[in-house]
């Protein structure tokens, strides 16, 4: 017997692939398009959402029996807002440059549909441990797509990964740039993020035909 | 045994296998297929998709050949190895073998890459999707070399063609299903991905970029400037070409879009063969003229001063807009694309008018995108189904009213 029962493990593994919040449920697209021009920003965003969703799910789950259902949305909002403010302040304190790059999008985690969606759909009806696993699973599923998109966009758009040049120096013309390669300026524009996400969805549904809906 | 029977045998041999569509395509592209159906209802029509495509290509060939001469001519003038034309359309300075060779040397590889990459992707998709290869790329492959600068690096073109064909067309289901004109998708991709190769005053003249790099490396050479007319006007500078130059096309620009005369002939040919829609072409010209007149009016009523950054393009005489930039080419060969344009006759008038109108609007107000016609057509491509919807609904309403009046 492992650490997790089979059902619990599914809570984590499902959102990674066949029930991915971005590619299947198509939630949280806004931030996925806006901040994935750099891998670093994508990673920080993924971690922030992981923190907010994992903890938020637990908090909501603990309070689920005392929240009057008429005002549950407000309560959920307060919980997310509190967690997001913690993330925002931590970023400002320890990674100021990055928090500037992410700008309003950290604050906008509050409106990220994935978070409210999981609170409503899962945490309100399940115990804290399950809710925690569900939160982690969904946040990682979101983060994985963010990182894949960020990887391709930064690699082809700026020729770097985590800010480190990997294809050579475009000004001194070394590496790939010596033979005439150039960065693709389109990659760092948001439309291209949509297309990259679209290609991921395409590949995923080609591999698993069960996901194709009419 | 001739090529035809050989092809036929190969085709028979591969019938029913995975690669069958690819061989079928080669066969039907070169020859009329041997087999015909023998029963059932038939509509006999000579203009199938292949014939339509070939007609459009024929209309574009003069532009391509002219583009080759022009590329060489622009090169020779800029580098001081040739003289400026003096004798109108048939000047010997323009129609020289030297010019043709320089141009062909650059443009034929572009043509080969465009067709090579595009058809390869079409073949791959046909094999994967197990359907016949569609002829849709034949026109796109010809359009692409005509709407790019002569100095475009070939690998960039290959990337853009792959993007345009896959994202612009195949994901929607292939020829006939696409929302956006694939050739313009390719151009837009190039424009946004590699803006330094699609605008500025270097890329339009063969060799100017290389010259620039040599200068940067410390060689003692003169920098070459081959600004397009739109580029000059956007900077409030005199373009330095007279109207006849613009009309005949002895000006820098994308390969095939400079000669308004030949585009006009191509357009008439398309109208005569009933392949291009005259409604779209005419309404687009009207739209451009209206917008041009509005801007001329703004200038003549003194609402805008000469120091304004829009002055150069706003004060351009309204009908000059038809001659400069890619407006004529876009209107004749791209706006009329039957797949992405409006389908209803009334819709075509609206669609065309807005293309012309918006082209000039973008041209004037956004000098960073001097080629407004590309964005205008792409935008209207998106709205074409909406226009059609309202035209059809309007018609339905009208008839319902008539019906009510009759029965009441």
From TrEMBL, chain A:
Single GO molecular function: oxidoreductase activity, acting on NAD(P)H, quinone or similar compound as acceptor
Keywords: Cell inner membrane, Cell membrane, Ion transport, Membrane, NAD, Sodium, Sodium transport, Translocase, Transmembrane, Transmembrane helix, Transport, Ubiquinone
Lipid bilayer topology: Multi-pass membrane protein
Catalytic activity: a ubiquinone + n Na(+)(in) + NADH + H(+) = a ubiquinol + n Na(+)(out) + NAD(+)
Gene Ontology BP, a term: sodium ion transport
Pfam families per record: Rnf-Nqr
Top-level class of the enzyme under EC nomenclature: translocase
Membrane-crossing residue ranges in chain numbering: 41-62, 74-95, 101-119, 131-152, 185-203
GO cellular component term, pick one: endomembrane system
EC number: 7.2.1.1
Assembly information from the UniProt record: Composed of six subunits; NqrA, NqrB, NqrC, NqrD, NqrE and NqrF.
Entry similarity comment: Belongs to the NqrDE/RnfAE family.
PANTHER family according to UniProt: ELECTRON TRANSPORT COMPLEX PROTEIN RNFE (PTHR30586), NA(+)-TRANSLOCATING NADH-QUINONE REDUCTASE SUBUNIT D (PTHR30586:SF1)
Protein name: Na(+)-translocating NADH-quinone reductase subunit D
Native source organism of the sequence: Maribacter vaceletii
């Amino acid at each position: 017997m492992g650490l997790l029962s089979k059902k619990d493990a599914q809570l984590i593994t499902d959102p990674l692939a066949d029930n991915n919040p971005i590619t299947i449920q198509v939630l949280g697209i806004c931030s996925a398009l806006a901040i994935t021009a750099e891998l670093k920003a994508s990673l920080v965003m993924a971690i922030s959402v992981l923190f907010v969703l994992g903890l938020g799910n637990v908090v909501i789950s603990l309070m689920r029996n005392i929240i009057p259902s008429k005002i549950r949305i407000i309560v959920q909002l307060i919980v997310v807002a509190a967690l997001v403010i913690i993330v925002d302040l931590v970023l400002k304190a320890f990674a100021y440059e990055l928090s500037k790059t992410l700008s309003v999008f950290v604050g906008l985690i509050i409106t990220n549909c994935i978070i409210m969606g999981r609170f409503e759909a899962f945490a309100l009806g399940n115990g804290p441990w399950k809710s925690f696993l569900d939160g982690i699973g969904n946040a990682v599923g979101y983060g994985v797509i963010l990182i894949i998109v960020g990887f391709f966009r930064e690699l082809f758009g700026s020729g770097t990964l985590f800010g480190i040049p990997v294809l050579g120096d475009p000004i001194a013309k070394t590496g790939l740039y010596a033979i005439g390669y150039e960065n693709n300026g389109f990659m760092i524009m948001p439309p291209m993020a949509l297309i990259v996400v679209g290609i991921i969805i395409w590949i995923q549904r080609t591999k698993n035909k069960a996901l194709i809906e009419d | 045994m001739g090529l035809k029977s050989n092809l036929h045998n190969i085709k028979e041999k591969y019938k029913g296998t995975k690669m069958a569509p690819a061989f079928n395509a080669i066969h039907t592209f070169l020859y009329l297929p041997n087999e015909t159906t023998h029963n059932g209802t038939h509509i006999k029509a000579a203009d199938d998709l292949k014939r339509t495509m070939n007609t459009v290509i024929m209309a574009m060939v003069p532009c391509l050949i002219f583009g080759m001469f022009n590329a060489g001519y622009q090169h020779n003038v800029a580098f001081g190895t040739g003289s400026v034309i003096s004798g109108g359309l048939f000047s010997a300075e323009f129609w020289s073998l030297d010019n043709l060779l320089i141009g062909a040397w650059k443009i034929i590889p572009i043509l080969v890459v465009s067709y090579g990459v595009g058809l390869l992707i079409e073949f791959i998709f046909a094999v994967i999707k197990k359907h016949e290869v569609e002829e849709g790329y034949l026109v796109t492959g010809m359009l692409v070399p005509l709407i790019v600068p002569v100095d475009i690096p070939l690998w960039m073109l290959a990337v853009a063609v792959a993007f345009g064909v896959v994202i612009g067309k195949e994901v929607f289901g292939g020829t006939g299903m696409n929302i956006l004109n694939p050739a313009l998708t390719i151009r837009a991709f190039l424009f946004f991905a590699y803006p330094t190769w699609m605008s500025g005053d270097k890329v339009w003249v063969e060799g100017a970029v290389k010259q620039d790099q040599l200068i940067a490396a410390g060689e003692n050479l003169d920098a070459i400037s081959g600004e397009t007319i739109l580029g000059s006007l956007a900077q409030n500078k005199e373009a330095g070409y007279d109207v006849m130059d613009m009309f005949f096309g002895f000006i820098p620009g994308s390969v095939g879009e400079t000669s308004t005369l030949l585009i006009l002939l191509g357009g008439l040919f398309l109208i005569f063969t009933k392949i291009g829609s005259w409604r779209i072409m005419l309404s687009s010209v009207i739209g451009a003229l209206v917008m041009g007149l509005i801007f001329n009016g703004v200038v003549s009523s003194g609402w805008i001063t000469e120091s304004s950054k829009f002055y150069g393009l706003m004060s351009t005489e309204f009908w000059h807009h038809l001659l400069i930039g890619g407006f004529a080419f876009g209107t004749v060969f791209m706006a009329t694309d039957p797949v992405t344009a409006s389908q209803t006759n009334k819709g075509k008038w609206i669609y065309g008018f807005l293309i012309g109108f918006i082209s000039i609007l973008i041209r004037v107000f956004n000098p960073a995108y001097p080629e407004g016609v590309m964005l205008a057509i792409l935008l209207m491509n998106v709205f074409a189904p909406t226009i059609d919807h309202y035209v059809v609904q309007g018609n339905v309403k009208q008839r319902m009213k008539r019906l009510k009046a009759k029965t009441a």
